[in-house]
Design a protein that fits this description.
The protein has 176 residues and is mainly alpha-helical. It is built from 5 helices and no strands. The chain has one domain: Ferritin, core subunit, four-helix bundle (Ferritin, Up-down Bundle), CATH 1.20.1260.10.
Length: 176
């Protein structure tokens, strides 16, 4: 984080420390961690895509379409990491018992989150998106600390950097 405490703008992830680890097991292999991350990223992509369809203001809709595209690029990073770690190309396998896109990065169910966003102002939706990105960043940092395998640490370091970029982008949009 450039600037240290001087750059901090007050955003924090909320909830219990363990909450961000709920879907991950410390014993999980890197391939499984990547698969789960891929499914959660798809949830965020769908959230941004569907929010963009509901917004009447074109500029706001464009912002969320752009975030949906950013999540798709994040999934591409996961595809590349998966290929490098497992030696298998293509999308990572879906985690057992979980549909791709069923949950979002913060662990919230997609459909419930979309329902709660109905009728909210653009500012409130941006604040929700910022909270999701902050929680995802926090979770990936925690996972990087929790896993012993160097390849797994690399996966979560890469993901945390990308989440930081998403968070910076969303806060910039809110400031405008």
């Amino acid at each position: 984080m450039a600037g240290g405490i001087d750059a901090w703008n007050g955003l924090v992830a909320d909830g219990a420390y363990e909450a961000g680890l709920a879907y991950f097991s410390r014993a999980s292999r890197p391939e499984a961690l990547i698969s789960l991350s891929f499914a959660l990223e798809e949830g965020n992509r769908l959230f941004y895509e569907r929010i963009s369809q509901d917004l009447k203001e074109e500029e706001a809709a464009s912002i969320f379409r752009s975030m949906s595209q950013a999540e798709e690029r994040h999934k591409e990073t996961l595809r590349e990491l998966h290929a490098r770690v497992s030696g298998i190309g293509g999308d990572p396998a879906r985690p057992e018992g979980m549909e791709a896109g069923e949950f979002m990065e913060g662990g919230a169910p997609l459909e419930e989150t979309l329902a709660s966003a109905k009728g909210k102002t653009l500012e409130e939706i941006l604040e929700l998106a910022i909270a999701m990105e902050a929680n995802a960043l926090d979770r990936y940092i925690k996972m990087g600390r929790a896993v012993a395998d160097e390849r797994s640490r690399e996966v979560f370091l890469t993901l945390s950097r990308e989440e930081q970029a998403h968070l910076e982008r969303m806060t910039s949009l809110l400031d405008r």
